[in-house]
């Protein structure tokens, strides 16, 4: 009876240990770790249209923007963050939207986005700037943004800046990069004829490698050939926390001690 009671004590202790470690793990991984970050720039930034315009299957115009980034490790990209503004279609052309709620939210709908990651094609004698190559990963999504402030750049017309944060919990949806490898990230709006608001991707104050590029339906071009332009986005990962490794080793140790005690009963 004494041995049986001791075994039960170790069993319940292992459950308690498991619960404690899982709770510690959850509290320690509340914030993801940035693999790459180019922050938005309210002071001097501006928006570059990134969209495909037309109807499904018969798109007419392309202006798909992409920017390069480098993965320093092989941890997966599970979360995507990007910033931008809207420009409203009016009889006088496009006018910056200055409201503090996403205009699509106010109309009971959502902007349609596509996220893409491409391989990198370095500059060569034929094309003097690097640009996206083979498409490696793609996901559609649709949700409204969170207001973060107004543009202060006079050329931006006080446009409202919004932030989008997308997290994938399913491992099969993550992008799994190679270590020390350059890729290209693209986000664009799937813009239909009935969409009243045109989305623009915010530029960043931080620069890396080559300038952003855009796809016109036939080839990639530099966004601004005479100046460095980079886009505002972030890519994050949730590394396997040390608590998980402790969980495994702790349970193995508890089980070993329990068996050892049982063998001496």
Structure write-up:
- The chain is globular.
- Strands 1, 2, 5, 6, 9, 10, 12 and 15 form an eight-stranded antiparallel beta sheet that branches. Strands 3, 4, 7, 8, 11, 13 and 14 form a seven-stranded mixed beta sheet that branches.
- It is of the alpha+beta class.
- The protein is built from three helices and 15 strands.
- The chain has two domains: 2-27 and 243-263; 32-239, no CATH class.
- 20% of the residues lie in helices and 40% in strands.
At a glance:
The protein has 265 residues and is an alpha+beta fold. The chain has helices at 2-28, 103-106, 242-263, and strands spanning 33-38, 47-49, 51-55, 58-71, 79-90, 93-96, 112-121, 131-142, 146-150, 160-167, 181-191, 197-202, 213-215, 220-222, 233-237. Strands 1, 2, 5, 6, 9, 10, 12 and 15 form an 8-stranded antiparallel sheet that branches. Strands 3, 4, 7, 8, 11, 13 and 14 form a 7-stranded mixed sheet that branches.
Query: What's the Cα radius of gyration?
Result: 25 Å
Query: What is the first-to-last residue Cα distance?
Result: 9 Å
Strand elements, count: 15
Number of domains: 2
What sequence of helices (H) and strands (E) makes up the elements? HEEEEEEHEEEEEEEEEH
Count of helical regions: 3
Helical fraction equals: 10-25%
Into which percentage range does the β-strand content fall?
A: 35-45%
User: What is the subunit organization of this protein?
Assistant: single chain
Protein structure class: alpha+beta
User: What is the global morphology?
Assistant: globular
Unreliable spans = 15-30, 241-265
Largest sheet: 8 strands, antiparallel
Mean pLDDT value: 83
């Amino acid at each position: 009876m004494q041995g049986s009671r001791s075994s039960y004590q170790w069993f319940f202790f292992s459950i308690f240990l498991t619960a404690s470690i899982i709770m510690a793990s959850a509290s320690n991984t509340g914030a993801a770790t940035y693999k790459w970050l180019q922050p938005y720039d309210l002071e001097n930034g501006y928006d570059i249209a990134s969209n495909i315009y037309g109807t499904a299957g018969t798109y007419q115009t392309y202006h798909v923007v992409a920017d390069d980034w480098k993965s320093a490790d092989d941890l997966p990209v599970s979360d995507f963050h990007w910033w931008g503004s809207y420009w409203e279609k009016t009889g006088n052309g496009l006018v910056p939207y200055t409201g503090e709620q996403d205009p699509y939210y106010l109309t009971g709908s959502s902007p349609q986005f596509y996220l893409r990651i491409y391989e990198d094609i370095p500059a060569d004698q034929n094309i003097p700037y690097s640009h996206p190559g083979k498409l490696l990963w793609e996901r559609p999504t649709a949700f409204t943004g969170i207001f973060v402030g107004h543009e202060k750049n006079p050329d931006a017309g006080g446009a409202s800046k919004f932030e989008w944060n997308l997290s994938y919990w399913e491992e099969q949806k993550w992008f799994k990069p190679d270590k020390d490898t350059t890729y290209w990230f693209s986000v664009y709006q799937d813009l239909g004829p009935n969409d009243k608001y045109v989305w623009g991707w915010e530029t960043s104050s931080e620069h890396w490698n080559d300038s952003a590029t855009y796809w016109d339906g036939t080839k990639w071009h530099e966004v601004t050939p005479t100046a460095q332009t980079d886009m505002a986005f972030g890519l994050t990962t949730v590394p396997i926390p040390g608590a998980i490794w402790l969980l495994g080793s702790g349970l193995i140790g508890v089980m070993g001690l329990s068996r050892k005690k049982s063998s001496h009963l």
